[in-house]
Amino acid sequence: MSERIGELVKELARIHSIDLAPDWIDRATGDTGEDRDAITRLTTSLGWDQPQPVRGKPRAHAFPMLVHSPTAGWWVAEQWETGDSFRVRGLGQEAVLPFSGDLSFFQVRFPDPLRGGRRLSAISIFRDALLQRKDLFVAGMIATLLSNVIALVTSLFSMQVYDRVIPRASFSTLIVLVIGVFVALLIDLALRITRALLVEREAQKIDTETSEFFFARAQSVRLDARSMGVGTMASQLRGLEQVRGVMSASSLFLIADLPFAALFVLVIFWLGGPLAIVPMISFPIALGLAFILAHGIRRSTDRAQISGNRKNGLLVESLDSAETVKANRGGWYMLGRWNRLLQEVHAHEYPVKRWSAVSSSIFTTLQQMTYVVLIAFGAYEVAGGRMTTGALVACAIITGRVNGPLIAQLPNFIIQWGYARSSLIQLDGILDLPQDHPAETANLRPESLHGQIRLERVAFVYPGAKEGLEIERLRIDPGERVGVIGGIGSGKSTLLRIVAGLYAPQQGSVTINGLDMTQVADDLLRQHIGYLPQEFRLINGSLRDNILLGLPDPGDKVLLDAATTTGLSHLIARHPWGLDLPISEGGRGLSGGQRTLTGLTRLLLSDPGLWLLDEPTSNLDAGTEKTVLAAIQAKMRDDSTFVMVTHKMSLLKLVDRVIVLAGGRVTIDGPTAEVLKRLQTSGVAQIKRAGAPAGIRGAA
Ligand SMILES: Nc1ncnc2c1ncn2[C@@H]1O[C@H](COP(=O)(O)OP(=O)(O)OP(=O)(O)O)[C@@H](O)[C@H]1O
């Protein structure tokens, strides 16, 4: 892709407040052309909708869009300057171009990485992915048609052998027939292999696309909306594999082959007349049975799926909390829960297995009975001279084809589909969860986010909880240093997460610099806000990966300087792998204090405008605490805003305002000295009500 066009598309996306998928440039082909059709090639290679060429003189509301001039090249056209010239910009340059007939204007239709707007269902994601490959499936259907016609050829071959070759011993005809059938079979083989390979390749691409979509969607689920456990959610996502299983070549061919049953019945009618009644009765019976089976297993597959997800959730939880379980002799308790869930899964799976076993046997018997009835009926017809023995053999082979692979595979396919359908329902559940940044909300990209933070009539309740946080009005000005204190469970961390934009209150508004936080583009918000949670959890990778998570790599020198200011450099220096120190899955490999230092080093490197720290030094010794706080203070600019949740009295000297929370409400808010004095002069009961930390109670 031409670099200029890529940059201009990015600029256009920015003006339209659209976040492009992070890998969109990587997915574009290596086309470096800059001609008029380059934009079409680019969007086609990305799988986006075709850009819309604007005919004639563009209307004012059609701007901004891309424009190509044969002399000046590509630009983003912003708006008319006069009636005959328009403003353009691109790569930091601005210009005014005269309008002329040889300019080409294009409106680019950006895809939404999370395809918002309409309500999504999991099945529509797969359907859209299949529909994008219409051509391939049309080719597949043609191959299926040819393949089925060739199948008829083999049955007609048998008819010719019985009716012509054997009675007359004409072996020259036999040789010609055998050669002809061999050629047909080889063509069939080639068609089947090509069809299977093509479908599997596309199925893999669909798998990549849909997995990417669901992974991104699961990541963007708002933190406060994740009421289910990590293991359960992971297991729900694994349902994708079941849907993928149904989309395999064999099941798709089964569906493709089903309509050809009608063709086969027609051929039987042509060869054996009334004999066609036999498959005409047996085939609908088989389909009816399949339908009853699908209906019968529906509830059981849904329930088995839910219990299976919970079982996986328990497995993840027990492995993750092994330390607590072992130390507290919780092994038996966990085993008991595991066995109960296992029993539940078996109880739900048993009806599915029972239906499957019974229906498979019925299908086999039906198949054999159809064969017997056909031959018996055919014997009358042959004896009566209404059809030849060869035609009867051909009819038997064709009926076998309808009843055989087609019908024999149906029960298995229906069970597979039953589980896939339950997985789709579970995936719908994930799609219905609220996202960090729903596609239908604006994606504002202000120049700056430095400004007042305002909470107005905010109410936040955790799912299932009766009470939560209630803040009538709270304002934090740029440059303020605020401490948040309160008793255990008083809502300090919740408040900080709301201010960080990680939780969205059910009522009221949270604004930053006058803009509703939910409407600000997520990347800008994350750049501006540095949030250190109470427990900084590391991810699998190296120490460097964890320090730089989501940040551009500033180089080892800058990184090591930041580590020196926090004290993390001691760990780096001591370990033979240094910055490449491996962090195992689940963030194991560092002590609690070292994890906090990693988070603080990352925070210093990200250089945020708004610092939100949740008990930043609770894991640190006194010396490290001093070093870290000095580093943060040195890094903060005058207009940096600083909000720190703490239980430590000594840290309040760093802030000039203190907010006291109790029971999810602000009970005291004012300058540090004043608040401390108020707390110290109040009675103990009042202090408890106010929710002040133990240190202050002691002082009182
Ligand atoms: N994920 C959650 N789901 C449900 N309830 C929660 C969740 N997290 C916290 N709570 C509840 O919300 C209330 C406030 O919790 P929060 O973590 O904000 O308190 P805190 O003041 O930071 O406490 P601490 O000083 O112990 O860190 C508590 O009663 C807690 O039980």
From TrEMBL:
GO MF entries: ABC-type oligopeptide transporter activity; ATP binding; ATP hydrolysis activity
Main location, first listed in the record: membrane
Membrane-spanning residues: 136-157, 169-191, 252-271, 277-297
Protein's name according to its UniProt entry: ATP-binding cassette subfamily C protein LapB
Domain ABC transmembrane type-1: 138-406
ABC transporter domain residues: 453-688
Keywords: ATP-binding, Membrane, Nucleotide-binding, Transmembrane, Transmembrane helix
Subcellular location: Cell membrane
SMART domains assigned: AAA
